[in-house]
Design brief:
By secondary structure, this protein is an alpha/beta fold. Helices cover 28% and strands 31% of the residues. 43% of the residues are buried.
């Protein structure tokens, strides 16, 4: 059993937990992820390692499906059954020169560890984060302390630049040379943002988030098309050359089990409501 040392809600449906998992923390590197199972009857879900502190790792997630909702309801002092990792290939960190780390929505959770590693490698690090509105922005203060400069964008203009992270990135590219970029967020956001870097010849990585079952390359559910070749995000990634990724196929595959996911969360909410003595339809 793995102890949850701290829990915190960061934004609407967005939660942060610190889990004591020495075997993961000891070997974790930027860009890697872990597989977590809450209990014996639970499914495995992949969560990116957001930070490491001693024997503990931080993961940040949005409570949107059955398992993430279940996980969001755990408290400090609770435990989860399984934490497997670190999994996946680490980020390709080296002294590029000037690096941009771009996060959108809950994808912001993935970039602090990358920004810190890039900074340690001697790079000048530009952070760009964005969300639908200012209430959904996360880790702004933390990233401001890590990056050499931090830019914020919101879709509605309630915080930072009125617009998208792709707009902010394009402005930055027009002003200065950027040698490498990491983009993490929803698939469409990664597609659009990586299209911005392509004309400038910027080496760009994206962290892909396909459906994943085991995290070890056995099931093949996380297959993605990169440069015309089928790759497995769990063992070949999760980071890939953004300009080689077939984002349309990725988005299509992400929608494969929408009906099943909807049924699972509905059944879970009814069950937990009944168990707590409330009306199933409350």
């Amino acid at each position: 059993m793995y102890l949850i040392e701290e829990t915190k809600q960061l934004a609407d449906r967005v939660f942060q937990i610190w889990i004591r998992a020495p075997h993961v923390a000891r070997h974790a590197k930027a860009g890697q992820f872990l597989m977590i199972r809450v209990a014996e009857t639970g499914e495995r879900i992949p969560l990116t390692i957001s930070a490491v502190d001693g024997d503990s790792v931080r993961v940040i997630f949005m409570a949107i499906g059955k398992t993430t909702t279940w996980l969001s309801r755990l408290a400090t002092g609770d435990t989860v059954l399984d934490v497997a990792g670190p999994l996946g290939r680490p980020s390709e960190i080296k002294p590029y020169g000037t690096c941009a780390v771009i996060g959108g929505g809950v994808g912001i959770a993935s970039i602090p560890i990358i920004a810190a590693a890039a900074k340690r490698a001697g790079n000048y690090v530009i952070g760009i984060i964005g969300a639908r509105n200012s209430a959904l922005l996360i880790l702004e203060e933390e990233l401001a302390g890590t990056c050499d400069e931090l830019h914020v964008a919101t879709d509605d203009g309630s915080g930072g630049t009125h617009g998208f992270v792709s707009d902010v990135l394009k402005t930055a590219l027009q002003k200065q040379k950027i040698d490498c970029a990491w983009v993490v967020g929803p698939a469409m956001m990664m597609k659009v943002t990586s299209m911005v870097t392509k004309p400038f010849g910027v080496k760009t990585f994206v962290s892909l988030n396909p459906i994943m079952v085991d995290g070890t390359g056995m099931c093949g559910s996380c297959r993605v098309l990169v440069g015309g070749t089928t790759r497995f995000a769990c063992v070949d990634g999760p980071e890939f050359d953004a300009h080689q990724v077939d984002f349309d196929l990725l988005i299509q595959r992400q929608r494969s089990y929408l009906n099943e996911e909807k049924s699972a969360i509905e059944e879970y909410l009814v069950h937990t409501c009944q168990c707590s003595g409330g009306s199933p339809h409350a």
